[in-house]
Amino acid sequence: MGVRVLTDYYKAVWNGTAIDLERFIENENLKQYIETKVQSQHDKYGHFNDKVKHIEIRDDWEAKFTDDEDGGFLYLSLPVAITKYHGGGYGEGTEFLIRNVNGKLVIVDWYTGGKDTYDFMVRGDNVTVDNPDIWNDSEWVKTLDNKID
User: Fold this and answer.
1) Which of 1, 112, 125, 135 has its CA 20 to 30 A from that of 21?
2) What's the Cα-to-Cα distance from 108 to each of 54, 86, 101, rounded to whole Å?
3) End-to-end distance of the chain based on CA atoms, in angstroms?
4) In the chain, how long is the greatest CA-to-CA distance?
5) pLDDT tens profile 58-97
6) Residues 6+ positions from 143 with CB-CB distance below 8 Å
7) Exposed, middle or buried, 145 (CB in 10 Å: 0-12/13-18/19+)?
8) Euclidean distance between CA atoms 143 and 88, whole angstroms
9) What is the DSSP track for the chain?
10) Each residue of 32-68: b (16+ CB within 10 Å) or e?
């Protein structure tokens, strides 16, 4: 799931291909945020003629399950290596929270760190990704939307 969504994400940003968030995300607030993130990043990087060839998750990834009253959630920290067609690439870390919702594994939070990333600029630095219900918090979402506008 992580490789698939991140491949779709980086290709949407750099190559301009579509990303089907319905496969990965059910929360409308998170889905809208990721759509805005993809468009913003594509506007910033999509004009470069160096498209993404593939991505891979490096060996030092981390997973941790936390049990809660809603059946628990999985935290994933995925260091990603992005390879481009014209000899080069870069790496960055992405954090996900994943929950089983009605028998389907879905992303309930998504944060990509690094000082130049969209999430860093909009959500801030030193973000702790540990609240699977954060995108259901209408006040938090409203504050975030005000930063984007």
Assistant:
1) 125
2) 24, 34, 10
3) 31
4) 48
5) 999 999 999 999 999 999 999 999 999 987 899 999 999 9
6) none
7) middle
8) 37
9) -HHHHHHHHHHHHHH-----GGGT---HHHHHHHHHHHHHHHHHHTTSS--EEEEEE-TT-EEEEE--TTS-EEEEEEEEEEEETTTEEEEEEEEEEEEEETTEEEEEEEEE-STTSHHHHHH-SS-----TTGGG-HHHHHHHHHHH-
10) bbbeebbeebbeeeeeeeeebbebeeeeeeeeeeeee
Task: Provide the pLDDT for residue 67.
Answer: 95
Place of tokens 């891979």: 56
The pTM assigned to this predicted structure is 0.93
- Rounded to the nearest 5°, which phi and psi values hold at 86? -100, 50
Please give the structure tokens belonging to residue 148.
């984007």
Q: What is the Cα 38 distance to its own chain's centre?
A: 9
Place of tokens 């690094």: 114
Return the number of other C-beta atoms located less than 10 Å from residue 149's C-beta: 4
* pLDDT classification of 29: cutoffs 50, 70, 90: very high
